[in-house]
Amino acid sequence: MTEPEIGELHSLIERIAKKKLPAEKFVPGKTTVNYAAPLFGAEEINAVVDSLFTGWLAEGKLTRKFEQEFAKYVGCRDSIVTNSGSSALLLAFAALKSPRIENNLKEGDEVITSALTFPTSLNSVILNSLNPVLVDVERHSYNMNPKTVEEMITRKTRALLVLHHLGNPCRMDELTRIAKEHNLFLVEDCCDAHGASFNGKRVGSFGDAGCFSFYAAHAFTMGEGGSITLNNEKLYPLIYSLKTCGLDENAFKDPSKRTLYTSIGYKMRIIELQAAMGLQQLKKLPGFVEKRRQNFSKIVKGLKKFSDFLEFPTEEKGAKAAWFSVPITIKENAPFSRTELIDFLRNARIETRLLLGGNVLKQPAYAGFKIRSSSLPVTDFFHSQSFYVGCHPGMTDEMIDYVVEKFEGFMSGHGK
Ligand SMILES: Cc1ncc(COP(=O)(O)O)c(C=O)c1O
Fold it and tell me: PANTHER family under this entry (predicted)?
C-alpha cells in the first residue's frame, strides 16, 4: 500500500468511526447505561490497521514502546505487558518465589491481602503455594485496614498484596511503612486503579510490583491485557522470562541463547495489535481519569440527598482516586433491600454489579481451603449490602441525570 492509499484509508475510517462510534445513541429507558464500556475511535482503529500492515503480529516494537510509556506514566523503572491482570499478579508472586531473588518467598509463607477482593488476585497467592491471610476493609474506603494488617502479621508473614478497591487508593503511607518495618514484599493490585495516586505518587510505583489489567471494562483497554510495573531491576529479567515460556531474557538479543530456558515459565504474551491500541488509549488515560472523577462526583452529588439510606466511599487524605465505578452501600436502616433496588435499576436499563468477589471466603471455590483471616464485619456488610453503577468516560450528563432520576423514582416509592 502506498502512503496516499494509507492516508485515504485513514480518512475513510475516521468518517466511519464518527458515524458508528459510540455504537448507540442514548435513548433514556431504551439504551442500557452500562457499568463499564470501552471508549475508542478512529485513532485506535487506524493504529491497529497500521500495525497489521507491518506484517508483524507477535510482540514487537510497539509492545516495547508501550511498556516504556506505561512505565513512565506510572513512574516506574520498567513495565512488562501480559495477557491479563490475572497473569500479571500470578507472575509477580511466581517471580518473588524464585530462588534467583534474594530472600525469596517459600512455600507456605503468608501473604496478607484484602478479604474484599477479586478471585484471581487471591488465586495468584494460592496458585504459587503461598498462604493468603485475609483482612477486613474500612467502611469509608473499602480498602484494607492498615491497623488490622499489622495485627495479623506473624513470623510466617512475608508479603502484602494491596488492592486499591475500584480505583480508590489505599493508605500507602501506612502500608509502605508496615512493609518496611516487617521486611515484607509489597505487591499492588492496581487492576481497577490506573492513574490513581497517593501523595502525588501513582499507584503501581510503591512496592516491588504493580499489577494492572487492560480488560475491556477497565480505565483504558487493549481488549484483554495487563502489565507489571517494576522498580526492582532483578525482577525484570525474571518476569520477562516467566511470561515468555521460561526463555532466557536475552534469547531474542543473543542468537546463542535463542533456545536457552532459564525459568519454569508460562506463555502470557500479547499480540502487537493490542500494543498498537494500548499506545493510543494510554494517550487518552489522563482525560479518562478526570472524566471518571467528574462523573463520580456528579452521581454522588445527585444521590447525596439519600444518605439516610445510601453511603458512598471517600478518598483518604492525600489520595486521588481513579474511580472505576460508583460503589453504593445500602445502610442498615434502609426500608428496602439491595435486590429490590438492583431489580428496579435493571428494569430501568441501568446496569449494576456487586463488589468484585465480595467476601471472597463466601465463594464456593474456597470452601475446602483453610484461610486465616481477621474478623470481617465490614467486608461481610459490603458482601450483602453493596453494589456499583458505572461512571466510565463514555457516560454523558444525560445518562447521569437519568440514573439520578431513576434513584429518585425508587426512593419516592420508599418514603423519600
Ligand atoms: C481487582 C482486580 N484484580 C485483578 C483482576 C484481573 O484482571 P484481568 O481480568 O485482566 O485478568 C481484576 C479484573 O477485573 C480486578 O478487578
Answer: DTDP-4-AMINO-4,6-DIDEOXYGALACTOSE TRANSAMINASE, TRANSAMINASE
Q: How far is the CA of 55 from the centre of ligand 1 (A)?
A: 31
Query: Ligand 1 centre and the CA of 378: distance in Å?
Result: 22
Cβ neighbours for 378, distance < 8 A, ≥ 6 positions apart: 136, 137, 138, 139
Q: What is the dotted CATH code of the domain comprising 50-278?
A: 3.40.640.10
| Residues 209, 124: Cα–Cα separation, whole Å | 13
Kindly report, residue by residue over 157-174, the tens digit of the pLDDT: 999 999 999 999 999 999
**Domain boundaries along the sequence of the chain:** 50-278, 286-412
Residues having CB within 6 Å of any atom of ligand 1:
84-86, 118, 120-121, 163, 189, 191-192, 213, 215, 226, 356
Residue 302 scores a pLDDT above 80 = yes
Q: Report pLDDT for 365.
A: 96
Alpha carbon distance 202, 100 (integer Å): 28
CATH fold of 286-412 reads: Aspartate Aminotransferase, domain 1 (3.90.1150)
* Catalytic site includes residue 10: no
